[in-house]
Structure formats: C-alpha cells, structure tokens
Amino acid sequence: MVSQPKQTSLVERALRRLGYVRWRPASVIHRVETIPAGEPLPALAPEAGRAGQYAGVYMGSPWVYVAVNRIAEAAALVPFRVYRVAAGGGSAGEVAPAGAGEVALPEHPFARLLQRPNPLLSRFELIEHTVGSLELHGNAYWFLAGQPGGAPQEIWPLRPDRVQIVPDAVRGVRGYVYEVDGRRIPLDAAEVVHFRRWHPANDYYGLSALEAARLAVETDRAMADWNRRYFGEGMAVPAGIVAIRERVSDADFERIKREWRAAYGGGERKTAFVRGASVEWHNVGLSQHDMDFLNARRFNREEIFQIFGIPVGLFSENATEANALVGERVFVERTLWPKLVRIAEKITTDLLPFYGTGLVGRFDDIRPQDRAQQLAELRLARGVLTVNELRARYFGLGPLPVSARAEVEEDEETPAPEPEE
Fold it and tell me: What are residue 240's DSSP bridge partners?
C-alpha cells in the first residue's frame, strides 16, 4: 500500500523554502520553545470556541456576506504608498496627511513586496484577506518570511482561527502558535504582524463584529430557515380540498383520488381529500403576514449592516440618488477610512522599521473633499506660505529648483494688467 503525501500548509511551505527566520538579534527575540510546566499557556479569547464558526456565518448569512465583502473589496482597491519623512517633518511612527518634508517612494522595496506578497497572492487578495479577517474575527495575522537578518521577502496571511498567542510577563507577547492538521507550529513574535480590533475584555485578541451582531444574525437565519420549510413539501398548504359528503368504501375513495390526480393533479400540485360527514379545518399557525415577516427580516438586515458600518442609503431599495451619495460618503469617511488607518499604522510601526528609520506607510486619502473650500483656503494661504510650503501641504510635492522658484516668485510679484475700457 502506497502512502499518500501529507498536505502542507502555506506557512509550512514558506518555512521550508525560506527557512525559519530570526528577524532581530537573539538577545531581543526568543524562539517559542515547548512551554515548560508552570509557564503561561497560549492565551485564548473568551469567544475562541466560536471563532471556527465565523466562516460558516459568513457563508450562510447573505447580509454578513454582503457587508464583509463590500468593506474588504473597497479597502483592497485603495493604493498603499511609502513615504520618507525628512528631519523635522514628522516621526517614523506617525501616519498623518501628506505634509512638508515627506517624499513619496514609489519604488521602495516594501511597496514592491506588497504588489506581490507571495507566489500565490496579489496585493488586492492580501488586503482583502486582511480586512475580511478583521471584520469576521477581529484579528488578522501576517507571517513574514525571508533570509535571516534581512527584510521580509514574502508575506503570508494566517487564518485567525488557527492562531494562538503565547503571552509573556515582560514583553507582552512571547510568540504565536499556528495549529494546522493537529500540528502546532511555533512562530517568533517578530515574524508575525498582528492586526486587531479593540476588545474590552481581552488584552491579546480583537473583538469580532459578529459577536455584537450574533443575535440579529441568528434570528435572521432562523427566519430564513422557517421560510424555506414553510414552502417545503412537508409544510405546503394544499391548493384545494375535495369534500365527499356521501359515505364511500375504501376502494371507491382510493379510486376517486387516483382519477382526480390523474386528470387535475401534478407533481407539485397537492389536493386534500375528505370523506364522510362535515369536516372543519382550524388553522392554529401564524402566516407570514401575521408575523410581519418581510419587515422583520428588513429590520435584521439593517441592524447587521449598521453594526458593520454600512449606511442605509447604500442598500435601501427606497433610497434616492441624494441618499445614496450621502451614504457612500459616510461609508468612506466613517467606516472604510478608519480601517485603512489602522492597517497603515501597524505597517508603519511593525514592518517599515526593517527598511530603516524615517519611513511611514499610508493609503491614499479617498475621503471626499470640498473642492471649493480647498481652493478658497489655498488662495488665503498664498499670502502667508512660500511656494514650496504650498506644494508640500496641498499637493504633496517636493521643493522647486532655485531657478524655477525665482521665476514663480517674480510672476507673483508682477501686478496683473488693468482691463481696457
């Protein structure tokens, strides 16, 4: 009997190809060894038992699927850029609007790595996976693979339901344990970038939005399942009733049913037969109208969407064009943009230091801008800011050459010609 080769995970393949990496000196990083007796075990989130069910909720609830997909795909569309901060222009850990002293680095090694994080994923897929994991689990993890002592060469997203955090009394996090097929793979703390949402009851793991939406999701799924059974074969209401008032024998009763169904029945059309004296039907159930079924499901949908930050104007069938535009703006400013800032700041503090100091990462600012207000502010600023300051603050551009700056300043000092009468 020939044994089949055992399947390996993406992380194991990355480890096999690139080796187990120590990103920082051994005095700073400690490998996750077998935990001795008396040492703290991997910390578990209070809802860890339900983490494996989040994927099932995503696949089984249409409203959760729509909300998570809209957020993840919208985030993956936004370009990410690396900037170098000049002395006095800000700190390396700051993710702020483009300002004086920042220079874009379109060919930075991390910018190129993000375009192709590993042989199997694109930048869009990596960001989509990361944002989707944050929405469903409240956590997202990147495993960094590369040569010892160097910068990351590949980024592999990890499934949050398979990751456990090993706490440390001094450094907070000693490392991570990735479990797949019953095997536990230890990872150094510096080899994993952990994105997390705020959790009021846990110091290590983020809180999933599904925990807040759990009751609404379970109610909606129960209603959808009831609706499916309502129209099922075993629960269907008959199309009509044939009442035979005269007493007939069993043979005649079966013959009448057979002939009726042969002439008027169908594979899906059900007819009830009653014989003998008067028979009455008493309905003790509730119809969809009695339960206000459609409005109840609509309420569940709106509650789930509100928890995920999807405005009503984006999905309501009664929304006007103005409502849709306002909803789109609210979605970008209050839902999508904070999530992009969270990811960008984590990249700035945990990943970009591998490439040196004075670097910040930032997604393009996609928040809608009031162009009229910007132009009015620019006109006022011309009297108090230099040309280079205007270029840096409002356009994210570097300083002009000395010769070009002199020409611009000369043009500004030249008065405009008087209009001819």
Answer: 271
